[in-house]
Amino acid sequence: MRIIGFSISIFLYTISFAQHGGSYTYQYLNLSNSARIAALGGTNISMFNDDVNFGWNNPALYNETMDGKFSVSHAIMRGNINHGYVAYGKYIDKWDATIGGGILYQSYGQMPMTDETGAVIGKFSASEYAIQGGIAHSEKKLSYGANVKLLYSQLESYNSLGAAIDIGGAFIDTTHQFSAGLVIKNIGTQFISYTKSNHEELPFQIQAGISKRLKYLPLRFSITAHNLQTFDIRYNDPNAQDQVNIFATDSASEVKEQKFIADKIFRHVIFAGEFYFGKNFNVRAGYDYLTAKEMSLVTKRGFTGFSLGFGMQIKRFQIDYAHEFHSVAGGSNMITIATNLNEFVKKDQPIHHDRF
């Protein structure tokens, strides 16, 4: 009860400062942690299955089918930037609970260091890490869990240390192949800030989502809503020109950018689908409306906001690949290799492909 009370108090304190945009530190916590997640739009908190990587997104998704699962993910981005995630899951029969954890990392590589005149005087590096551990317990159709994350960031000579927790829940209906999730993410604080006079907030947010596998079509679709703690997350572009209506009664100086309710709503939504071609191969696609709106050019949109990928089972190994279209300038490629370590010990134990 003390832990629950403490978590609620931190949650109420954090939500009172909740804002969207660049006012947060540790933004790497919002990166896709696996190729499958990346292909599904960058986050998914409702797909209940045996993929141990989903526990990072919603700790309530940890379940007994993840016992022994080990996964390594790595993404390559432009500018020699790399990030990835290493994960493992274990079912504890004595506790009737599943524990999982991993390490999320981002490396910005070597960058030139210059003085005030622009002369190169050396090089410096930057990297960020999150060590995460989680636990989940299921009761009939309900599952609930929590993650604890230790956060570290090193940017040249500046360092920061922090901690955060995630609290999640999930509803699973295997009969109708339907699941739903709710998670409160990144409740925490900085213990050590980059500078003494600049304490920054964590990227706190509330997410909800649903997943449904269709009965007569080899497709499972997901809808994920993010940043629910703030309704209006539209970027107020100071360079945007107002649209003047010649029939309006207000003067041109009083005309402001029209804010559409539908646009505000859809900026919270990610759509995703997973298409199954047999038991060992599937294709995935996702669409993040927020990324499409914020990263597209007025003159050229391209595939900004979309993500594509596939997964295939080769003997004891699951291999996933994804490409995220961040902007017309390019995107990132991510690959995940996963296996069940129990398979190398218990010859007769089959690999679970899916909870459904």
Task: Briefly summarize what is shown.
It is built from 5 helices and 14 strands. It is mainly beta and 356 residues long. The protein has one domain: Porin, CATH 2.40.160.
Task: Please specify the SSE layout and strand pairing.
Layout: H1 2-15, H2 35-39, H3 54-57, E1 69-76, E2 82-92, E3 97-114, E4 120-139, E5 142-155, E6 158-173, E7 178-192, E8 205-213, E9 219-225, H4 261-266, E10 269-276, E11 281-288, H5 289-295, E12 306-314, E13 317-327, E14 330-340
Antiparallel strand pairs: 1-2, 1-14, 2-3, 3-4, 4-5, 5-6, 6-7, 7-8, 8-9, 9-10, 10-11, 11-12, 12-13, 13-14
Question: How would you describe the overall organization of this protein?
Answer:
- The protein is mostly beta strands and 356 residues long.
- It has one domain (2-344): Porin.
- 10% of the residues lie in helices and 46% in strands.
- It contains 5 helices and 14 strands.
- Strands 1-2-3-4-5-6-7-8-9-10-11-12-13-14 form a 14-stranded antiparallel barrel.
- The chain starts with a helix and ends in a 16-residue tail after the last strand.
- Which spans have pLDDT < 50 for at least 5 consecutive residues? 1-19, 241-257
- Biggest sheet: strands, sense, closure? 14 strands, antiparallel, barrel
Predict the CATH topology. Porin
Tell me the CATH architecture.
Answer: Beta Barrel
Rg over C-alpha atoms, rounded to the nearest angstrom:
22 Å
Q: Termini distance?
A: 34 Å
Helix content class: 10-25%
Mean pLDDT: 87
CATH class division: Mainly Beta
- Helical stretch tally: 5
Number of domains: 1
Derived structural class: mainly beta
- What is the succession of H and E elements? HHHEEEEEEEEEHEEHEEE
| Count of β-strands | 14
How much of the sequence lies in strands comes to over 45%
Shape by Cα distribution: globular
Strand order of the largest sheet: 1-2-3-4-5-6-7-8-9-10-11-12-13-14
